[in-house]
Structure formats: structure tokens, C-alpha cells
């Protein structure tokens, strides 16, 4: 049943704003980093490891958490907007199944955005090559590790944003929560208390200098996400079809 619901949800997002945002948000990061590098580079030589680090830092620190708030708000907001929650729950499905199917859809969009960032950054490097820059060693970036670390470390954020956008009809509330939480990374993410703040896990997993700290962020994110998803899924089932 869950897989059937996921297929139905995928059909519903064709040509949707959510699909556009999955491409637009990574594109903004790629264009920004491309423009900054092109403007500030005076030597004609690009440190590609630093270029990739800059792209992933901007993505993990700022754009990615906001994207998760936006995408969950859009995916669930369509149901609020069209008043289709109760219609869907009159079908022989449980609210928990629908909640998990929507979450799985959000995971797909999360993975897609990280893949899009890699593709668009690679395209920017190709353009640098056309402009005469050397692209030697430009693609010695661990793509699989980046996607895995980015997606797993962001799971607690995705669970929370999915829940709040499920519960609240107004898309402004989930977006406001995402913006406020992202701003907290500035203070908490750079302190020893980052372990208590799930929004700092992405930045830590992607950019921490210590491998052990990166792995700690992944373990924390996985644990928090599984526990939070279990609690909220159980709570959704008890609450039934009530929405605010």
C-alpha cells in the first residue's frame, strides 16, 4: 500500500512548483559560486577541492535547510489548498500510511536536489573549461559520500518540517520555522552544543575537518530521525484526520 501511495504522489507532482524548486534551489547555489569564483579569481587557477567545498558549504549551511522547509510545505500544502486530506483519508488507507508516503516523497525530492547540485556544479566546471581554466582534478570529488552524508544528516530536519507542514494549513508557518531554525546555525552550529541542534548536523557532516565528528553527526542524525519519525507517526495515527 505504501508503494502504491508513493506512486500516486509522484504522479501528482508532475509539472508542480515543488519539482521546479528541486532544480531552482541548487541552480541558485551553482550560479552564485560560479559568479563569485569568476569575479574574484585573479590567478587563472582554481583550487577545485575548495570550489566544491564552497558549493557544499553554502548548500548545507543556508540553502538546503530552507529548501527542505519549502519543499515539505509545497508537497503538503497542495493537499491543504485543495482540501483533499479528508477525501484521501476516506479511502481504505490509514493516516499513518499517507503520512509515511508523503515523507518518502519528500525524501525523493531531497535526494533529487542534492543530485541536481552535483550536476549543476559539474556544468559550471565545464563552463570554466570553455573559458580557458584548467579542469584537471576538477572531478576528484566524492559524489557518493556527499549525497549520502547530506541526505542522512538532513533527515531530522525533514521529519520535523514534514510534520509541521502536515499539521498546519498555512505554508508560512513551516517556512518561518525553517528560516528561524536555519538562523540558529550561526551561533549553535559553531559551538560545542551543536550535537543538541539537528539543523547543525548537515553542515557538520559535510564540512567538519574531523572525520570522527562527521561520523558523529551522521550517527546523531540517524538516531534522532528514526526516533522522531516513529513518535510522530504514532501520534498521527492517534490524532486521526484532524488538521489545524
From TrEMBL:
The chain crosses the membrane at residues 17-38, 58-77, 98-131, 143-164, 171-188, 218-237. The keyword Transmembrane helix applies. Keywords: Membrane, Transmembrane, Transmembrane helix. CDD domains: ABC-2_lan_permease-like. It comes from the Bacteria. It holds the Pfam family ABC2_membrane_4. This is ABC transporter permease.
